[in-house]
Amino acid sequence: MSGKAVLSLFGGNPKIDVAKKQLTYPLYGADFDPLNHHFLLVGGGGGSSSTGVPNRISLLDTSNRSEIKEVSDIELAPDEDNVSSLAIAESSAQSLLAYAGINGSVRDQEAGRNEHFRSFRVPLPAKRKKDQTDAAPPTAHVAPTQPLARTALFRAAAGPKNDCYQRILRLSPATYADGTEPTIDEKAGQLAPHVIRRVATIASGLATQNEVITFPTTETPSATQAISRVNLEKAEANDADLTIADNTGTAFALAYATDHELFLQRLGDQKGTINSEPIKVHETQVGPKGRSKIRALRFLGSRYLLVLQNRHNKSGVELMVFKVSKDFAQVQQTLVKYLKNVKQGVGLDVCSLSKGQDGSQQFVVAVAGQDSSIQIHTIDWLPVTGMTPFKQYADIIDVHNGPITRIVFSNFIPPRLPITGQTPPQYIRLASVGVDKAVVVQTLPLKPTPATGTGKTMPRYALITPSEVGSLFYNLFLGLITLFVCTTALISFLEFRGAIPPIIGATKYLPQRWQHTYPYAHDNPGPLIPESMPAVESIIDKIKLSEATPVIEKLEKMQDEIKLADASEAIASMQSAAPNKLADASEAIRSMQSAISTASPSMQQVQDTLANLVSRQKSSDKEPNKAIIVRDLEHTGGEVSAELRKEADIVREGTLRKWESLTGHEKRTWKKKLIEAGHWTEHQGEAVLKGVFFGQLAGIVGNMVG
Known about the structure:
alpha+beta; 5-stranded antiparallel sheet; 18% helix; ER-Golgi transport; transport; transmembrane; transmembrane helix
């Protein structure tokens, strides 16, 4: 097995059976029997050199999907050139009519004679019996190949020796005399009759004056039978193709392309028919980095044309679809597909599958890359939308151990309708050959479309997708991923806003500056302050709500009792001393105020006592202490928040520091913020702030970062 199929994630691997055969000579041409995809004709060789590599054409049996067998060989003259192009013009149950491009010997060319065009009659094995399967090998002896004709069709082939050779050989689609497509009666096991109307086109290369010549298919074509002869002067046709131009099969259309120009020509089917002049319908544009080159082309039916363009400097491949006017004089670009994984294309072929009742049809496209890869795509024509976008079926890498010289699809012959349970599975084959002397045949399965419903007995056929089950799993997986991403984003947003407790810890992935300035309501699970607690208006209120609250209450009660006792004594003394004299009363009041001021403990003494009691209580308490945290809310306009937390819970927050650990600059900044926020006044002193935890100052952090 050769090649590796590469598809999108969860797309599944395509069901492609691959067979490989190693021959003894490099290969340059290949073509399937148009009425029986079991037979493949290949050709090539070593040329007229003395390397000992033969020049040969081989008939291969590809009926076994995993094995290729040689049926017969055509041994060519060793002093002539190798096979440069190859095609099968006619087919019957007994034999094939094959065309080949083979330059004559050096002696013949020096004599001014180069009979480059050859025709052969290639016998086929005897018809299989009904009980033999597709995998069964031929059972009868095959007669030897019969050479039919050798002639020169190019004008440049006559005269002094030059490098002219038959570069291109293409044939029109196989049809019956009435223009209908051939069919096979699978039940009877018989091939359709061999009466097929076709025309052929050849193009020269390396000639002094290159040509594109079209002629009818016969056993012995000659230059006098040419339907059309186009002189390209020094330019060369990189590729050419033919299609049927009307519904009767009596008129044809030719498309050919040079490096930068695409031409169309409407033809008759025999000499003497009036043909239109070739019309240039497309030209590649000059871009800032260079100009694309047309490498290959194929008709999609009779009204669409597929063109392969290589971008400048091996920067990619474009597949362009043009809609052709009825008179074959104009084209309109309808689709463009950029193949970013293929740096340069070297080959192109198309297989047209059967049409549906409504005229819908699928085309299978194969593109060979310079890196020995093959990409397979599908494109459908639908009566409502026209041509649909390309869909990639497979990207097959490492098909050959060297350059691919030719890729070709088998001709799909649909079974007779209606489709029944006895209709066998249908498939097409794709063959590729290369200078590595290998033949690789890949079998692609087809399915009827629609498979169910009113049209299932009269369906069209389409390529089976790589894995329809895989596509289902892919869609489910994509849905789950989308749901997970949306859920994660919602939870992260709610955590940022503090609406829910931390679940995924999204806040820690915020920038460091934001982590302690954003007002999270759920730094720890559960509410920070129970709803039953009163609102906190200042740091002093916060201290009262802490574990020092009982101590504060005792101090306040003691202070009130002292003031009350002193005041009562002063008033009694005043009343007894001079109740009726105003001066004495004033003096008594001043005495009372002095006594109260002297006897009452100062606020500083209360705060110092408070700090000492709180410190002793914390050091002796076995339960986790509560701590007061002050944060700078820069985003709310410079406000300050105070929180009540367990001290053990804030150990993990490295950015929180006690008042005693702050620098002088930080203390001054905090005092200013506390005063502006109404949480602290100068007369309260710093003692009340001891032991309180402070978060980072946003302004200071921002200045440091700046």
